[in-house]
Design a protein that fits this description.
The chain is built from 11 helices and 10 strands. With about 290 residues, it is an alpha/beta fold. Helix 3 runs antiparallel to helix 5. The longest helix is centred in the middle third of the chain and has 18 residues. The protein starts with a helix and ends in a 10-residue tail after the last strand.
């Protein structure tokens, strides 16, 4: 008896190589997600919960469900289960230092800025961006400074819109910024929330990066950190080029610590720090949207 057969005998649901490959094809076609064969045990453990929740008896039945036209919400549950929303305030702090030192002075002079948090998860990143700008431009909330925050997962976007977090997360925010821009939640003593003024700086929305983007830009900065790690090399290169097309000349792209911009997009970027890239003035997009 093969090891795979023994494993299936110990599982609640049978999960064949064909089942895995069918799920991998769907995840790539819908979301650009790249699932290596080595991820098969992880995929099983995460999706078995969805089979129980939907009361289906096999992965074949679940695949049939996913391919049904009116099951778009379940397809989003799929991507949510297969990806990890790990985030915190001021994660990868060097990016916020660059925002403060290189971009904020210009924003203060012009009174205008457009920043995109692409893959905002539960909102810690866009609020960290807003806090950084408010630290150097105290009246930023009353200027033409806007942050777009998007994610494919409607559940985390809903959490981000609330702007409410556990008190344990508060220690990452400087005390002066805490006192000015946050408040305790009267109905939840173990939580805090951001006040209305800072929340008005951020527009939250759902967006699949693999489909058309319903905005033109240009942006002064784009944060897309620890998102491209889920994509294969070809999809990553196309994404970098699309970001380049949405940045103004001199605009910044911030990516995750294990990600690198490669391919045609690098013709339009220069490195500007750790996992930080700046669009070269006069460069166009390397690939069409």
């Amino acid at each position: 008896m093969s090891l795979a057969a023994v494993e299936d005998g110990q599982r609640e649901f049978s999960f064949s190589d064909q089942d895995f490959q069918s799920l991998a094809r769907l995840a790539r076609a819908e979301f650009g997600l790249s699932l290596a064969e080595s991820k098969k045990p992880l995929v099983y453990s995460r999706l078995a919960r969805r089979l129980r929740a939907r009361k289906v008896g096999s992965f074949q039945q679940y695949l049939t469900l996913l391919e049904t036209a009116d099951e778009s919400e379940e397809r989003l549950e799929l991507i949510s289960a297969l990806t990890t929303n790990v985030t915190s305030f001021f994660r990868e702090k060097h990016h916020f230092e660059t925002l403060k030192s290189e971009l904020s002075p210009d924003f203060g002079k012009t009174g205008k800025a457009r920043i995109w948090s692409a893959g905002c998860s539960s909102g810690q990143e866009p609020f960290s961006i807003a806090l950084t700008l408010l630290e150097t431009i105290p009246d930023a909330a009353r200027r033409d400074i806007r942050i777009l925050a998007t994610d494919i997962d409607p559940a985390v976007v809903s959490r981000a819109k609330r702007g409410r977090y556990s008190n344990e997360e508060k220690s990452a925010i400087a005390p002066a910024l805490q006192s000015k821009w946050t408040r305790l939640c009267p109905d939840a003593p173990s939580a805090f929330e951001f006040n209305e003024e800072i929340r008005k700086m951020i527009s939250f929305g759902e967006l699949n990066l693999m489909v058309g983007w319903p905005f033109k830009g240009p942006f002064d900065a784009i944060f897309c950190r620890n998102v491209a790690i889920y994509f294969d090399h070809e999809t990553q290169q196309k994404l970098w080029s699309k970001f380049a097309d949405k940045l103004r000349p001199g605009g910044y792209l911030f990516i995750g610590h294990s990600e690198r911009v490669t391919g045609p997009a690098m013709d339009g970027f220069t490195t500007a720090g750790v996992t930080t890239y700046r669009k070269i003035a006069g460069s166009g997009s390397a690939l069409e949207n």
